[in-house]
Structure formats: structure tokens, C-alpha cells
Design goal:
Elements (H helix, E strand, L loop, with lengths): L2 H7 L1 H4 L3 E3 L19 E3 L8 H16 L8 E2 L2 E2 L13 H10 L15 E6 L2 E6 L7 E4 H14 L4 H17 L7
Parallel strand pairs: 1-2
Antiparallel strand pairs: 3-4, 5-6, 6-7
């Protein structure tokens, strides 16, 4: 069965996206094609098309590649196996050790697992929406200026450098004091 045929069989779930297995390998690609983010859809259940999912999937794939997992293992009894590792080349992390304990084997990589860190959306006019999951209870939901404070806090913490944080904060302060600059040169 060709790549296109296997992908076509999964389109009832994938709906125009690339169907991937729990290790983010494209269905039918035999481990040679990886997909993550908005263009991919897990065959065992769709995830939200958000930057949070894409970032976690990217980190997951980088971890597999850095630890030199074989993403294209041979077929075993007609079944495409999870990525395997060579213990001599691979340094197992804590999550791999837990997965190895659960499966009684350190031979296979753990599948991707999404961790929902919450939803934030800036709605304009110094207001935002926030929904933060709390274990063993419902999510904390906030709107308005409190949501805006949460959104800005996370936005600043995600900046890659202190210089970027200071520049963004400076821009917010200038905008609040003087309004938006609408002039063009």
C-alpha cells in the first residue's frame, strides 16, 4: 500500500492534515516522514491546532533525534514498531525510564503525550481570556484585566532574552502613556 493510499484511509480523522502515529511519523511513510504542528493529526485522537501543541511536538521530536532513536525500525510480523534505541548510543531520560518500566522494556521510545498548560487569548482593549487547568479540580477561568495580566505575564516569560522582554515591556508602557503610533514616514 502506497503512502497516499494509507493517508487517504485516515482522512476521516485527519481531515486534510497528515495522519501521524503516536511517535509523529506519517502514516505510510515508514518512519522516513515526520510531521508535527497544525499540519499533522494523531490517528488515535486529534489535538488542538495551537502553538502550544506544535512546540511540545517539536521538543519531543528533537529529543528523539538527539537521543538517536531509530525512527525507521524494521517491520515485525507486519507491524510497524515504535522507534527503537541502541542503549550504547542513547541516554534515557526520566520519561523514557518510566515508559520502560511500564512496558518492561527500555527498547522503545515513549509516544508523544500532550500536556495542556492552558489557553490564553488577547481580546483587545486591555482585556484577555485565560483558562488554566488545575489538577483534581476544574480549570481557573478569567477574563478582563486579570486575564490580560496573565496573558502579558506569560507573553513576557516566553521571550527568548532579557533584551526582548525589556523592549516589549517598554513598548507596552509607551503605548499606555502615549497611545498607538499611527504615523507613517
Amino acid at each position: 500500500e502506497a503512502l497516499g493510499e494509507k493517508q487517504a484511509n485516515e482522512q476521516s480523522t485527519a481531515r486534510g492534515r497528515i495522519a501521524v502515529d503516536p511517535w509523529l511519523r506519517a502514516t505510510g511513510g515508514e518512519g522516513r516522514i515526520l510531521a508535527f504542528g497544525d499540519c499533522s493529526c494523531l490517528t488515535n485522537g486529534a489535538l488542538p491546532a495551537t502553538a502550544q501543541v506544535a512546540a511540545q511536538q517539536g521538543e519531543y521530536l528533537v529529543g528523539l533525534m538527539n537521543r538517536q532513536f531509530d525512527l525507521n525500525p524494521p517491520l515485525s510480523q507486519g507491524v510497524f514498531l515504535p522507534p527503537t534505541n541502541d542503549p550504547l548510543k542513547t541516554k534515557a531520560g526520566l520519561s523514557d525510564a518510566i515508559a520502560g518500566f511500564a512496558t518492561n522494556s527500555n527498547e522503545y521510545a515513549r509516544p508523544f503525550q500532550f500536556l495542556n498548560l492552558g489557553i490564553l487569548a488577547y481580546t483587545g482593549g486591555k482585556t484577555a481570556l485565560a483558562q488554566i487547568p488545575v489538577p483534581n479540580s476544574g480549570p481557573i477561568k478569567s477574563t478582563g484585566q486579570v486575564g490580560n495580566f496573565l496573558w502579558k505575564s506569560v507573553y513576557l516569560s516566553k521571550q527568548v532574552s532579557w533584551r526582548s522582554r525589556v523592549l516589549v515591556l517598554n513598548d507596552w508602557v509607551k503605548t499606555s502613556w502615549f497611545g498607538r503610533d499611527i504615523t507613517r514616514i
